[in-house]
């Protein structure tokens, strides 16, 4: 799956969870600082990504996901497994 497709899916999820404009969900944006995602919403976003893309992101990897690109990499890694 292409990275752009994964990022578009993440943008949809961020919009659903937080109401943020999907056009603002870009690879270099941080969830907490740039997109104003709090820690509870971040967990919701990660679980929604796991469901949408049918992957498992290990709990210990959650803290490594700071940017949209980090989330896309975690999803791509899960898809490749």
Radius of gyration: 11 Å
The number of domains: 1
Total strands: the figure is 0
CATH topology: Non-ribosomal Peptide Synthetase Peptidyl Carrier Protein, Chain A
N-to-C SSE series? Answer: HHH
Approximately how much helix is present in the residues? 40-55%
CATH class: Mainly Alpha
Q: How would you name the CATH homologous superfamily?
A: ACP-like
Distance between the termini: 13 Å
The largest sheet, given as strand count, sense and whether it forms a barrel, is: none
Specify the overall morphology: globular
Q: Counting H and I runs of at least 4 residues, what is the number of helices? A: 3
* Percent range for β-strand residues: under 5%
Question: What are the salient characteristics of this protein?
Answer:
81 residues, mainly alpha, Non-ribosomal Peptide Synthetase Peptidyl Carrier Protein, Chain A, 3 helices, 54% helix, 0% strand, globular
Structure description:
Helix 1 (3-18) crosses helix 3 (68-80). Helices cover 54% and strands 0% of the residues. It is an all-alpha fold and 81 residues long. The chain has a single domain, classed as Orthogonal Bundle (Non-ribosomal Peptide Synthetase Peptidyl Carrier Protein, Chain A). It has 3 helices and no strands. The mean pLDDT is 95. The protein is globular, with a radius of gyration of 11 Å.
């Amino acid at each position: 799956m292409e990275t752009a497709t994964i990022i578009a899916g993440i943008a949809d999820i961020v919009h659903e969870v937080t109401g943020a404009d999907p056009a603002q969900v870009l690879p270099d944006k941080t969830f907490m600082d740039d997109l104003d995602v709090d820690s509870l919403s971040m967990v919701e976003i990660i679980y929604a990504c796991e469901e949408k893309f049918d992957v498992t992101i290990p709990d210990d990897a959650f803290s490594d996901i700071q940017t949209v690109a980090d989330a896309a990499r975690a999803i791509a890694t899960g898809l490749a497994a």
